[in-house]
Amino acid sequence: MIVELFGPPGSGKTTLAHVLAIRLREDGYRAEVVRSYRPAIRSGALDLGVLLFVSRIVSAIISTAGVICSRGNGGASLSQSLLMLRAMPPKKPIWRARIWQQILKLSHAWDRAKTAQDILIFDEGYVQAVGSLALLNGNADRSALETLLGDVPVADLTIRVLAPRAMVAARLRGRMEREPPAERLFEADFEVNMRSLSVFETISDILAVSGRDVVCAKTSSRRSTMKSTQVLERAIIARYILGTNDGERRRVEPQSEAVGLHVP
């Protein structure tokens, strides 16, 4: 079963995904988080600057080549990535390199997740990728978003993560303060990220009209996050049981294999 989260940067998607996975495992289900792109964090006062910049570029090239060549799935993943990028290319080349790698690895991980028996929770799936492309391209036109959303794979359950604007702003500022300056070259600036609130509002409206099964989760406080987690857990379990042949739970096994999506 594939579950995907979407929402503005800083809304708490990754945290919620891990809380959900823990709760599901505690209830006896095999659940793993498929992580997306995560920016580097400054480890101390020293900033390696150009060295970090070059290392990320080299790492991106190597990991992308690995995805293309591995297990014969590179063709499908490459095709999916090219279609999305051609439809809405980011303005800056360095943004294009980052989102290219992210979408390519997403395609590869999604293909693997479709054949898995576990519950795979993508903290950023295809809906998030569409929103990211719209932001980096500068085109949040509704018709363009509708077209792109209609072409990407659909999860078994889609979760929209909601957080107050002030909280998103505070989290983004904190994240930027922890990032090395060289890392910020790969990231959209604060103003671009804040525009994502309206972009994902439009995306949510499009999904509702299309009939997509979307559940909302609030992360404005610890209490609201835990309440949302309870609702989401019940929704995931209900759909998972309906999707299994025998309706039985698949118990957690030690060191169960996760479908990883880690970008250096």
- Biggest sheet features: 5 strands, parallel
Task: Provide the low-confidence segments as ranges.
Answer: 42-46, 71-75, 246-264
Kindly state the percentage of residues in helix. 55-70%
Q: Radius of gyration over alpha carbons?
A: 18 Å
Distance between the termini: 26 Å
Number of strands: 5
Summarize this structure as a short list of keywords or feature phrases.
264 residues, alpha/beta, 9% strand
Tell me about this structure.
The chain is α/β, with parallel strands linked by helices. It has helices spanning 13-26, 50-69, 74-87, 93-114, 126-137, 142-151, 165-178, 181-184, 190-194, 196-210, 222-243; strands at 2-6, 31-34, 119-122, 157-162, 214-218. The chain has a five-stranded parallel β-sheet, sandwiched between helices. The radius of gyration is 18 Å and the shape is globular. Residues 42-46, 71-75 and 246-264 have low confidence and may be disordered.
